[in-house]
Write a structure and sequence with these properties.
By secondary structure, the protein is α/β, with parallel strands linked by helices. About 40% of the residues lie in helices and about 20% in strands. The protein contains 16 helices and 10 strands. Helix 3 links the parallel strand 1 (about 40-45) and strand 2 (about 65-70). Helix 1 runs parallel beside helix 9 (about 220-225). The longest helix is centred in the last third of the chain and has 19 residues, at about 340-360.
Amino acid sequence: MSITKKVSVLAVGLGMVGTLAACGSSSDDAGSGSGDAKTVTLVSHDSWAASKDVIAAFEKSSGYKVKVLEDGDAGQAVNKAILTKDNPQGDVFFGVDNTLLSRALDNGLFQPYEAKGLDQVPADYQADRDEHRVTPIDTGDICVNYDKAYFDRHGLTPPKSFDDLVEPEYKNLLVTENAGTSSPGLGFLLGTAARYGDDGWEGYWKKLKANGVKVVDGWEQAYNEEFSGSAGGKKAKGDRPLVVSYASSPPVEVVYADPQPATAPTGVADGTCFRQIEYAGLLSNAGNPEGGKALLDFLLSKDFQEDMPLNMFVHPVREGARLPEVFTKYGPQAKDPQTLDPAKIADNRDQWVKSWTSLVLK
């Protein structure tokens, strides 16, 4: 997701903080669950958002009041949840993705529960099918975005693939995030590892470094300051027309523009995408496990799945869930994204990041 922080931070760049805040949870309380059997607490990264009427409908039908505790970006939230697993802050954790999933499972963060509606989710998204410790909730693609106006002005064809990015015509045009500090930065690294394999990804990054790739700490700086195609980047006079972001970034540029443009000002290099899947799970030692189970069922319900795209700018995993037109028009999923088995990520992630840091940042 993960796809973390992209919506809330992008909203800052577009001056839309209030809009997303209005879509938040029914409670702003921090800290551990209240222990009230009628309250169910969701722990999440900072990009959680849902429509008030959808949450209210769940509360009315289930009898539970939803309390949301946002706990930093995905990596921070997962690490804190692991440290507090014996006395968890809530009942359900939302926002662990396939890049961090093994860390959560290996540390016993979740207890098994097979959510209602799971039979409507493709098997490819179900990473823990035997034990059901996590439930897939949404998916999205980390991809290189490009500034259409820049390439039009310069008579250049935008890149389409990883291979294209190391070509001379794209020298000094790409900005990406630090793979050690940023979720999309890590996803982009994993995409290159999937594309070029264990023996080839380091050589690819040597070429990319020689071609002038710029690395910044996080997505906010890359997209809202360095990238010339975003609303925030234009204000900051960003000069990089290529950025590692998300396939759902172009719809955001349309939805939050005033007036809305007829076409998205940014595009996606479809051959540079890495597929992310976000999961939720019932926390071990949850104070209200029955409420947690009801909440997990709700997160897979058609109502919530259809509510997600314009709140968190991710794709639903439930088959048959409708997408808004702005998504189908400007933010379709990649046709053939790079993927990696979570077990392979678990075995190699830390070493890949260490090698990447030595190769690219030193």
